[in-house]
Amino acid sequence: MTVRVIATLGGALILTGLLVWYFFGPKRARQAELADGVQVIRVTVKGGYSPDVIQVGAGVPVRLLFDRQESGDCSSRVVFPDFKVNQTLPAFETTTVAFLPEKPGEYEFACGMGMHHGRILVGESARVPDPGGGHAANVSATAAVAGGGDSLGAGAAVDSADSEERERNTEISDLTRRVIFGGLLTAPVLRRQGR
User: pLDDT tens digits for 36-75?
Assistant: First the structure.
């Protein structure tokens, strides 16, 4: 192999890796903040949703503040099929979308045209700030609404460990999918270079 072929192959591999990371890279979930018994988070709408993965607790009302910073038709509507929400998002305004996630699970949302996507990860518990040290603690959703943030039991620790285990498994499956996809994208380049 010549230096030119090796440089071309190396460049193709790097470009393929960057493209795969950009489109399929891990998305970090943002936790909604609990305020007056409602989980609240601001979502910026500009060429997509930011954050596009939101973590909330089951049984506690959710209020998403969609701050739409563009005027294109694609993002003019947001749809949550599992919660029966289909909301118009006026350009350059903040629109509130509220719903109650009753069961833990993963729920999708998208723009009206299905081009921009996001996920709501509903866990067993809600996170509330600890008034003593500024740290956050997991409590059951009913305790959070009732103001019972002081009484943390073994159930909260188990929920936290289960949540970490699910996150780890999700990351492993995501990395596996990215490696396979990267290999599929790279195979034609390697085959062509072998000729």
Answer: 899 999 999 998 999 989 999 999 999 999 999 998 888 9
For the chain, which domains are there?
27-167 (2.60.40.420)
Geometric angle at alpha carbon 44, from 108 and 48, rounded to 5°: 55
Regarding pTM above 0.85, the answer is: no
Model pLDDT for residues 116-167, shown as the tens digit of each residue = 999 999 998 654 443 344 444 443 333 333 333 333 334 444 554 555 566 5
Tell me which residue of 168, 167, 45 sits closest to 109, measured CA to CA. Answer: 45
- Cis preceding linkage at 104, omega within 30: no
SS3 letters for the chain?
Answer: CCHHHHHHHHHHHHHHHHHHHHHHCCCCCEECEEECCEEEEEEEECCCEECCEEEEECCCCEEEEEEECCCCCCCCEEEEHHHCEEEECCCCCEEEEEECCCCCEEEEEEECCCCCEEEEEEECEEEEECCCCCCEEEEEHHHHHHCCCCCCCHHHHHHHHHHHHHHHHHHHHHHHHHHHHHHHHHHHHHHHHCC
